[in-house]
Amino acid sequence: MEIVSENKCFGGTVKFIKHSSSTVKTDMTFSVFEPKEASQKKLPVLYYLSGLTCTAENFTFKAGAFKKAAELGMIIVCPDTSPRGAGVDGEDERYDLGAGAGFYIDSTTAKWSENYQMYSYVTKELPQLIEDSFNIDSSKVSITGHSMGGHGALICALKNPSLYKSVSAFSPIVNPVDCPWGQLAFSEYLGEDQESWKAYDACELVRAHGWQGEILIEQGKADQFLEEQLKPQNFVSACEASGVKLSLNMREGYDHSYYFISTFIDDHLDFHFKELEK
Fold this sequence. Notes:
Elements: E1 2-9, E2 12-20, E3 27-34, E4 43-49, H1 57-62, H2 66-72, E5 75-79, H3 118-133, E6 136-145, H4 148-159, E7 166-170, H5 180-190, H6 194-197, H7 202-209, E8 214-220, H8 226-230, H9 232-242, E9 245-251, H10 258-277
């Protein structure tokens, strides 16, 4: 594990860290914000999963989350969105497939399966590395994300209720089996058997397994991807069918950008802090 950079921030530190991943078989980079209290006691941790085209830098630089995280005493971890430099043919040709577009699933097709194992990386390898290397309270782990990362946050939590105590999302792709982004990625990564796609679809998962607490979703009404790609009402229906408490905030005038995320990120940190303290 190599510390690429370290900067003081609101009394704590922001670190970018590179390590060799045994799961995706490339070097991976993630960022960690540690409040100053991390030197004295174990702290809760929030994982943030970024969207298409993003790296570990986007949220770290743009979201403005660290002042609130410092006040709450919460560690924030931001992984990358895919393997980098895996050498898979065509992985750099599109913004919505390959590099920057791992979709937080474990690929099964021959072309992608060697490296594109982002679900296992995010839910197994990275949490173990964080637990081994940082002063976290492993009973207080939460997850959130944006767009493709919102999809990732929802499926990771719904598939691992013993790992994550709370979940939220910004502008998530809630029903990838029923939108162009998801259909492209899933057909490439998982093959043509659409039954296998359901294992990574939040609507399917919440109907099948439910969720023990509340789910918080933030969605801009002026989001250019709202109708074709995001379809939040599909998740509303799935949660209603399974009796899951969902708070969906439809925000007038807000789009898909980090201006939107930075406006409401403090609300999500407060939400996770309260859920983790229950």
